[in-house]
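Summary for the steering committee. The consortium agreed at its last meeting that each partner would contribute one worked example illustrating the joint modelling workflow. Our contribution is presented below. We chose a case with several input lines so that the handling of multiple components could be demonstrated. No manual editing was applied between input and output; the record is shown as generated.
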Amino acid sequence: MATATSFPVTLPTAIPVREILPWAIFGGLMLALGIYFVGVEEGAAAVFNSAYVHEFVHDGRHLLGFPCH
Amino acid sequence: MTGRLLLRGMLAGLVAALLSFGFLKLAGESSVERAIAFETAADAAKAKASAEEAAAKGQPAPVAAVETELVSRPVQAGVGLLTGVVVYSTAFGGLFALAFALCFRRMADLGPRATSAVLAALGFVAVYAAPMLKYPANPPSVGLAETIGMRTSLYFALILISLAVIIAAGMLRIRLLPRLGAWNAALIAAGVYVAVMIGISLALPDVNEVPEEFPATVLWQFRVASLGGQAIMWATLGLLFGVLAERLMAPHGARA
Ligand SMILES: [Zn+2]
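What follows is the complete predicted structure of the assembly.
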C-alpha cells in the first residue's frame, strides 16, 4: 500500500522579542491615541478641539461600546 | 519583519473597519436615531413641565437652553461613524500584529493563519465580550453626565484587567501543557479566565442608568448591533491578517 506523499511543512521560527520591542512602543502609543480619540476625548480634558471631535465620532463611540452620555 | 507585520495588521484593521461600519450603519444607526428621538421627546416634556410650573407661579417662562449642534446628525451617522470605527479598528489591527509577533510559535505550534484566527477570537473575548457583559454598550440618552468619568474609568479598568487575566491564563496553559496535554491544559486555562472574570465582574460596582420609560427593544437592538459590529471586526482582522502574515513569512517559492 502506497503511503500518502507528504511534504515536510516547516513553519517559520518565532520572531525574537528584541526585534518586536521597539515596535511595541510605537504600537502601544498608536493604540492609546486611537482609543483616546474615539473613546475618551471630550469637553473639559480634551487634547484635540474638544467638543467637535467628541460629536464627530459620537455614534462610533456609542456603537463601539464606550461609555458616553 | 515586525514592521511589515505591523503594516499588514493596520491594513487588515482598515478592511475590518469598512465591513464593521457597513454592518453598524445597517443594523445600529436606526436604534441610535430612535434613542435620540426618545431623548428629544424627554427633554421637550421636561421643558414644558418647568414652563407650566413657572406659569402657575406667575413667573415668566424659563428660557430653555438651546443645544447647539456642532456636527449634523447625517455627518455623525456617516463620515463620523466611519472615522471612529476606522481609527479604532486600525489601531487595534496594529496592536494585534504585535501580539501576533509575540505569540507566533510561542503560544502553540500553529501556522500564521491559525495563530491569527485563535488570537483574534481571544482578543474579541478579552477586549469586548467579557467587559460588555458587565458594562454593556448604551445608546445615546442612556447614561448620566455626572458619572461619565467614573463609568469610563470602570470600563477601561475592566478591559485592562480582562487582558491581564487572559494573558495569565495563556501562560498557565503553557505551564500545564507538558503534564496535562493540550486539551486539559486549554480547558483549565479557559476555566480560570472565566472564573476570575466572574469574580471581578461581581466585585465591581453596577451601573444602571437606563431611563425608566426607555424602550427595551431599542436598547436590545443597539446592544446586539454593537456586538455584531465588534464580532465582524475581530473576525475579519483575524482571518485576513492570517493570510497576509502567511504570505509575508513563507520563504520564497515555498508557500506552505
Ligand atoms: Zn453620547
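Residues 17-40 of chain A form the longest helix (24 residues). The interface with chain B takes residues 9-15, 17, 19-20, 23-24, 26-28, 30-31, 33-35, 37-40, 42, 51-52, 55-69 of chain A (CB under 8 Å).
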